[in-house]
Amino acid sequence: MVGVKVIGNDSEFQPELTAAGSRLAVVKFTMAGCRPCVRISPAFNMLSNKYPHVVFLEVDVHVCQATAAANNISATPTFLFFRNKVRVDLYQGADASGLEEKIKQHVENDPGSNEDSDIPKGYLLVTMAFNQPVKLYSMKLQTSDFAQAPKCVKIFINLPRSMDFDDAERSEATQTLDLAEEDFKDDGLIPLRYVKFQNVQSVTMFVKNNQGDEETTKINYLTFIGTPVQATNMNDFKRVRSGISTNRVSEYSTLDGTCLLQYVHNVLVEIE
Predict the structure, then answer these.
(1) Model confidence, pTM
(2) Is residue 114 included in any domain, yes or no?
């Protein structure tokens, strides 16, 4: 795809990510009247032509409110990076050179972007970034073909830069997993060493091989399970007896090139 595809409504977003498949998808979350969004728009269009193997999507947070809320968008412009429908990175602000540098990192580490590269079969590298620090205690993996399911998996957290396959091979992992068939069952959860995953901002997962020694490793579903580091303590709140809320969105600009969104609930309450 060359050019930027504008998402017209919430129902179009997931099909576009599905169509992107294993290609990198860069999604720009924008907002009408956001000056930083307008400023970076020409550069975003230029990048879509410069990197034809990358999918470029644009989502207006007012037009697609459910999509923006599902992806926890709190400022515009925000750029989310997806591969195989999995969010792998985030970039905020209107710095075009910084955005391109982030795209380059993912394109250069894409094993499919260089047909002459000598990548061992079964290798797979996935990075997921979180909106806030989290504590992780398990993960869940599913695949439609057990022979292509991951076997030896190395997990790294909070890496200062993007990792390539050579880095993943020689670096010491936060945890190494040797997966078996029961780990991929519908009710299966893969436990993590909770003490090592207490303040996680990003996770990089390196798959070294698969169960059937196949050429390609396949993951249909991947999720991490945990809690935010700054969890809400409900004991700190007084009891609320009644309330009706209506959402509205307000916005304001900041000096760092973003427009912040504030989802406000109008609540009429009676506190005991």
Answers:
(1) 0.49
(2) no
